[in-house]
Structures are given as C-alpha cells and as structure tokens.
C-alpha cells in the first residue's frame, strides 16, 4: 500500500509540475519545446507502476483525479491573479504574469493527458493479457509507444495550432515525442521495482 501511495503522489506531482512548466516554450538544441516536457514523460511509467501494483481501476481513477486537480489548480491560480494585491507590499504583477493560466494551453494539456494516459492504460492491459506478462519491460515500451505520439500531437496542435507557425508546432510535437521516448527507455527498469497486484486483491 505504501508503494501505491508513493507512486500515485509522484504521478500527480509530475502532472502538476508539467502543466505549470508547459506555460513556457524554450528553445534547445534546435527545437522549440514546452518546458513541461522535461518532467511529464515520467508520468507514463508511473502510471504503469500504479497499474501493475493496484490494477486497472486504480490507474483509471488516478488519471481522472490528476485531471481534476490540474483543472482546480488552473482555476485557483486564475482567481488569485484576479484578487487585488496588497499595494503596501507592491503591485505583485509577476504572479499573474507567470501563473495566471493560458486556458488554451491548460485545456489542451489536460485533454492530451486524459486521452493518452487512458490509451496507455488500455494498451498495457491488452499487452499483458493477450501477449505476455513475462517481459515486463515490453508492456511499458509498447504502451508508451502508442500513447506518447498521441499525447504529443493532441497537446501541440490543440495548444498552439493556429496561434504559432506550423513549423514551430511541428517542432514542439517532435521534440515532445523524442524526449518522451528517451525518458521511456531510461525508465524501463522501474517496472521491476514494484510487485504485481494479485489477481483477486482489493485495493
């Protein structure tokens, strides 16, 4: 149970950090990259760990819970930015400039997360039930191979399509995919750090 809690907290934390980071587009090694990409990819493997230890229902619940928390976070930042500042401290405009949500990016991020993570869940389930449970690294690799491109394309085009040149949007999508696959390969051994949920166990 402690493992499930720790992994779930890490998953939600990574989701929140990545959504905040996505508000800034950086330029690195010739690619335009939303900064949330540097932390978000690990969520796919963390989701796999929850799936393995707690089952598919827990994984689905975690995905939807993280989406709700991210929506609440965006509304909270928006509300705080609207509230009048204590002028004896200063205008404090920096908060709104940095954290007041760009709603299109927020909604695109949450939509991409829910679609891709649920797709990852179903792919993981099918692979372990229909193909093999023996090679555990393969369930992570296969599920991520399907969900990562979907996530990157949905987010990039929903968040930036029509607002930025197509070349930049494709650059963001491609860099997302490359970084996420790189993270996938690095995180493959993590699947062996947790035990498999007993078939009839209840969480």
List strands and helices in order, with pairings.
Layout: H1 2-21, E1 25-28, E2 31-34, H2 42-54, H3 56-82, H4 93-99, H5 103-131, H6 136-160, H7 166-187
Antiparallel strand pairs: 1-2
Helix pairs in contact: 1-2, 1-3, 2-3, 2-5, 3-4, 3-5, 5-6, 6-7
User: Based on CA inertia axes, which overall geometry fits?
Assistant: globular
What does the radius of gyration come to?
18 Å
Secondary structure: number of strands: 2
| Oligomeric form | single chain
Please explain how this structure is put together.
With 203 residues, the protein is mainly alpha-helical. It has one domain (2-193). The chain contains 7 helices and 2 strands, in the order H-E-E-H-H-H-H-H-H. The chain has helices at residues 2-21, 42-54, 56-82, 93-99, 103-131, 136-160, 166-187, and strands at residues 25-28, 31-34. Strands 1-2 form a two-stranded antiparallel sheet. Strand 1 (25-28) and strand 2 (31-34) form a beta hairpin. It is globular and about 60 Å long. The N and C termini lie close together (8 Å). The mean pLDDT is 87.
Concise description?
By secondary structure, the protein is mainly α. Helices cover 70% and strands 4% of the residues. Helix 2 (42-54) crosses helix 5 (103-131) and helix 6 (136-160) packs antiparallel against helix 7.
Keywords:
about 200 residues; 7 helices; 2 strands
């Amino acid at each position: 149970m402690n493992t499930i809690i720790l992994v779930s907290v890490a998953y939600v934390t990574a989701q929140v950090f990545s959504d905040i980071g996505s508000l800034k587009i950086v330029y690195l090694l010739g690619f335009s990259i939303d900064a949330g990409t540097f932390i978000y990819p690990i969520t796919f493997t963390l989701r796999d760990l929850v799936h393995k230890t707690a089952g598919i229902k827990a994984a689905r619940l975690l995905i939807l819970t993280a989406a709700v928390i991210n929506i609440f976070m965006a509304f909270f930042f928006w509300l705080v930015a609207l509230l009048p500042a204590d002028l004896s401290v200063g205008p404090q405009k920096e908060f709104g400039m940095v954290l007041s949500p760009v709603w299109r990016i927020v909604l695109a991020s949450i939509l991409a997360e829910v679609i891709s993570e649920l797709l990852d869940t179903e792919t993981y389930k099918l692979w372990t039930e229909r193909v093999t449970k023996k090679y555990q690294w393969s369930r992570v690799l296969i599920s991520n191979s399907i969900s990562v491109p979907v996530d990157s394309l949905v987010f990039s085009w929903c968040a930036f399509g029509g607002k930025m040149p197509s070349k930049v949007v494709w650059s963001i999508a491609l860099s997302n995919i490359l970084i996420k696959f790189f993270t996938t390969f690095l995180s493959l051994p993590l699947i062996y750090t947790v035990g498999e949920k007993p078939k009839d166990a209840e969480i």
